[in-house]
Write a structure and sequence with these properties.
With 97 residues, this protein is an all-alpha fold. The chain has helices at residues 19-31, 62-74, 86-95.
Length: 97
């Protein structure tokens, strides 16, 4: 997109989170010296911190995803991977042979 000859606009206003998240995100954006700053929706009450029983888990790597799946399965919890896990399942099955 950087080669596109056009006016660049940043979407910085969010209607999905309140001040607490915007403040934390802006702190990190400042640390990485980004010129962007996020603007919250003041009427939304956002809480940042640990969640006792999350509905979803985000992972940065396949290894992290597999670790979370195995942990949750060992706790007898239902697990689904968005986008499927066919490639990871094939890899795991091949490793087990």
């Amino acid at each position: 997109m950087s080669d596109f000859d056009g006016r660049q606009l940043h979407l910085t206003q969010s209607f999905r989170f309140g001040p607490a998240l915007a403040e934390d995100a802006n702190r990190w954006l400042s640390i990485v010296e980004s010129p962007l700053r996020l603007q919250d929706t003041p009427s939304l009450d956002t809480t940042i911190g640990p969640v006792e029983a999350p509905d979803a888990v985000l992972c940065r790597s396949n290894a992290g995803a597999i670790r979370e799946v195995l942990t949750l399965l060992s706790e007898d919890k239902r697990v689904a991977m968005v986008g499927g896990g066919d490639a990871l399942e094939k890899l795991a099955r091949a490793a087990g042979q």
